[in-house]
Amino acid sequence: MFRKLYLFISLVFLATSLPAQTGHIHLSDTGKNALLQLIHWEIFNAETKTWDSIQESYCIENRDFNSIVKFRKKLIIDSGLVGVPLTINVYHFGASDFFMDGKKIGGFGIPANQAEDEICINPKSKRITYAFLKAGTHWLEVNYSNHLFHSFYSKLNESCAGFEVLISKSSSVYSSKLGTNGLFSTGFLIVIGILFALGLLHCLIYFFYKKEVSNLYFAVFTTLFALLISLFEIAHASESPRLIILSLFLRWRLLIPVFYFLLQLVFAVADIKKGSRLRQLVNIVTIVAAVLLFGIPNLYSLIIFALIALYTTFSCILTGMLISRIKAEKGNGIRIVKMGLQIFIYFAAVYFVVSNFLNLSFASGPFGQVFIFTLLVLGILSLPISMSTYLAFMFTKNNRDLILQLHKVEKLSELTIQQEKEKKLMLEKQNEELESQVKIRTAEVVEQREELAIKNKEIIDSINYARKIQHALLAHKELLQENLPEHFILFQPKDIVSGDFYWATKTIDKSESSELFTSRFFLAVCDSTGHGVPGAFMSLLNIGFLTEAINEKKILNPGEVFNFVRERLIHNLSREEQKDGFDGVLLLLPEKDKVLQYAAANCKPVIIRAGNLLELEADRMPVGMGERKNNFNTFSVKVEKGDVLYIYTDGFADQFGGPKGKKFKYKNLNEFLKIISYLDMNAQRDELKKMFEDWKGELEQVDDVCVVGIKF
Length: 712
Known about the structure:
Layout: H1 2-17, E1 24-27, E2 35-37, E3 41-45, E4 50-54, E5 69-77, E6 85-92, E7 95-100, E8 103-108, E9 127-131, E10 136-145, H2 148-151, E11 163-169, H3 173-177, H4 181-208, H5 214-237, H6 241-253, H7 255-269, H8 277-295, H9 302-325, H10 334-356, H11 365-473, H12 477-483, E12 487-492, E13 500-510, E14 517-528, H13 532-552, H14 558-573, E15 581-589, E16 595-601, E17 606-609, E18 612-615, E19 623-624, E20 635-638, E21 644-648, E22 656-657, E23 662-663, H15 666-676, H16 681-696, E24 705-711
Parallel strand pairs: 1-5
Antiparallel strand pairs: 2-11, 3-4, 3-5, 5-10, 6-9, 6-11, 7-8, 7-10, 12-24, 13-14, 14-15, 15-16, 15-19, 16-20, 17-18, 17-21, 21-24, 22-23
Helix pairs in contact: 4-5, 4-11, 5-6, 5-7, 5-11, 7-8, 7-9, 8-9, 10-11, 11-13, 13-14
């Protein structure tokens, strides 16, 4: 774009100083600093063996330069230019040889008919110096080839693959300015180095302090900015056509990420959240612009420059608006950013004015060169340096604030330490007082503990004596063995004394019609309300009422015995609706007829017969205060030889244990009784006890356990 603009300005200049060119050109000693572009060339037609006229040698339609093409230009030299050194400046991406009147005067690269033999070059500051020895007509001939056009340039829609020739006097400003390229290249390399250094510095700051993401955005921005300037410098200084074309292709498109990260930096400084609509809009616009730019390969497309112009303008306006919205409060350093932006805009405006209205450029002598170079350098560095200064200022401010906070913390720490010392002294004094009080209280506690130990021993002795009394009231071993030849009793109280009990009695009655005596054996297995001492008291009371009913009142029907005991319990204990009493079974064992009579309150006896389990009937109510007050039934069941009768309270089935800490349950108990029923009675008792202990494990026993087995 700049090259074409430069050519346009040159042509305007020539139009005012030289006559229009036709098929030949007349060179005279007019214009000390005259610069002339050669147009209206003749091209050799290999098919017709003739020379055809063309408008210009740079952009030629339907020409791919994949072989050597010959051009020529007729020059008419006045006598005033004889012996005067002239400079032939050449611009192309191919390879050329120059001839004057058939004699080679120079060349750039090696033109060839085959691509592998061709060496392309961009002449840049190289030129041909030639002095005419006589006036009159001369022919400038050019042999030119450009195989890269077909394989590389055309992919980027670069249609102008020819060459341009400009002639000037060797003393002209245009010729002398070529010697200054090295100075300005060095200057721009310094600028690039500064930008890369700033990017690296803030990248390191970000990695050590990731809370300030603005440092990361600034590092990416300055790095991309340095890369952008590097691409401009490559296009300006390189002689490789391929590298120049690539740099031209990339540098304009690189403006999009440069300004995008500039906006991200401003967003971070302005504290605009990532999810805001403005940031989403910028992201969408950037994505659309990037897709359009990289989807259009044409190097000089007007659409590209329009998109870039719109995006950069949009970014600059948005940047200015965001920075202007930030309040320049004391100590926030935002004035530095505003100043940098103002300097950037100021130098950009001055550069636009002096280059477009004052025609001041690199070709305007030493003053113009230094002035333009100064404008460019200051304009380029103003924004990055101001942003870097701002970020450094904020970093320093944060550190200063941290130091102040640290001083405050140190003062608070000193105050805290002093307070801790005072607290320590107070605590030591309090500890001394507490130790004195503790000694007094310890002596009192020891004395009380001794008293409690004495009382506890008295209580335990009393309970142990009560245990002896309770055991004395339980069924005697001799009585059980006399009436139950094969039986076992598993009796395991939860505490010293028990609420469960097993009781037996035997009555002998004389018949009224004869002198014969009839004996009856009763066995009760019951679970009184509660366990421990309260349960033991209830068991004593229940045993007393059972004894009264059978031995004193001569009630021989098991169901009527339970009815009598219930009435006695309700009359004596349940005046305040207390549900005291017991669950259990009262057996009247057969003497001759093998018919078993029994009463059952909330407790079902079971019989194992030939390996099968029979669950007997029971009344679902307790002996005592309950919801139901029906008369207890006396159930009868005929027993056979080999039957095993089991009566048990709820302590075994309700015990928690096992791998999951659950209840043993009645179902499992009955199944286990079936398994062990073939064993002798003592072995059954041992197996039951072992199963109970294994199931309970380390858990606490929850209730009294009483299991009675009788084999017929």
